[in-house]
Specification:
Blueprint: E1 2-4, H1 7-27, H2 30-55, E2 59-63, E3 67-69, E4 74-80, E5 84-89, E6 99-101, E7 115-119, E8 125-136, E9 144-160, E10 171-172, E11 191-196, H3 208-214, E12 218-222, E13 230-233, H4 240-259, E14 264-270, E15 273-279, H5 282-291
Parallel strand pairs: 3-9, 13-14
Antiparallel strand pairs: 1-9, 2-4, 4-7, 5-6, 5-8, 8-9, 10-13, 11-12, 14-15
Helix pairs in contact: 1-2, 4-5
């Protein structure tokens, strides 16, 4: 706990007291000296009073979303038993705009009001606590006092990486044997060739050059979705920024594969060891990449 920028308030109070002392000393009036004593006590209370108010201030987070995405705001619900200013600090986000929490008026048995504290995570990860700065200038707003505090989240906040470009090589599941070579999996819906028109074919599939060449109506033949899962292995480098870019590319590749209705097995390493499991949607993929190390 410490005062915030104390030099100007302290010098201002010292100047006012010195000026009042000169007036009281030169006038010799008792009532001026009495007022000066009251003014001295008031100003000193304004300087040190926030420290005592800050000691009894209790701030907690009552609600948090389960999921977030790097680069997008995440809103937490906070409460406080007295009026304080709360500023989010890293982790999981850089300093953000402050909010005022607590009762609008300091009165006995006042109901705590909830307030929304906005975070902007910059990297993926799993967070169970957030660091904030709690500050107050009560009762006279002469000097701000602040303290750093770590607030536990009511649940895990899983921050997925941003969705980057899909540029990952993928391999079919049967290529995991030692004597097999990885290959690019053909995307479902990609052109495979041309064939003669059959009832039920869409007119959009008509291949006009082949139709003109053969004299019969020809249509494009598309690749059918493969039933074999695609394996995507992600191993992160030690550098945090390089790992973040890799996670973004991995999520983009997973999104592309899921859009093609392909079964995908994601292989990562988490705190408990290697994890190899199928991902069925983008939310699950983001949570897996957030936990990966």
């Amino acid at each position: 706990m410490r005062p915030v920028k104390p030099l100007k308030p302290v010098l201002g109070v010292a100047g006012v007291l010195a000026l009042w002392w000169l007036v009281a000393h030169n006038s010799g009036s008792g009532w001026i000296q009495v007022i000066g004593d009251g003014l001295t006590g008031t100003l000193l209370a304004g300087l040190v009073g926030p420290a005592f108010a800050l000691r009894r201030a209790k701030v907690r987070i009552t609600q948090t979303p389960a999921d977030g995405t790097a680069g997008r705001p995440v809103e937490l619900t906070i409460t406080a038993n007295t009026r304080v200013r709360v500023t989010a600090r890293a982790p999981p986000a850089p300093p953000g705009p402050p909010v005022f929490a607590g009762p609008a008026r300091a009165r006995p048995n006042a109901e705590p009001r909830t307030q929304t504290l906005s975070l902007l995570p910059t990297h993926r990860g799993v967070h169970r606590a957030v660091q904030v700065e709690v500050a107050t200038a009560a009762p006279f707003a002469l000097l701000w006092w602040s303290r750093r505090q770590t607030l536990d989240l009511p649940g895990e906040l899983v921050v997925a990486p941003r969705r980057g470009p899909a540029d990952f090589p993928v391999t079919a599941a049967h290529d995991t044997d030692g004597d097999a070579r990885p290959h690019q999996t053909t995307a479902a819906g990609a052109p495979k060739g041309v064939r003669e028109y059959q009832p039920g074919d869409s007119r959009r599939w008509v291949h006009w050059p082949a139709t003109a060449h053969t004299g019969r109506v020809m249509v494009r033949e598309m690749e059918a979705p493969t039933a074999e899962p695609v394996i995507l292995t992600v191993a992160f480098p030690p550098d945090q920024e390089a790992a973040e870019r890799l996670a973004e590319s991995a999520l983009g590749s997973l999104a592309r594969l899921l859009d093609l209705d392909l079964p995908v097995i994601l292989v990562t390493t988490e705190a408990g060891g290697p994890v190899r499991a199928e991902v069925r949607d983008l939310r699950q993929a983001g949570r897996r990449l957030a936990r990966a190390q």
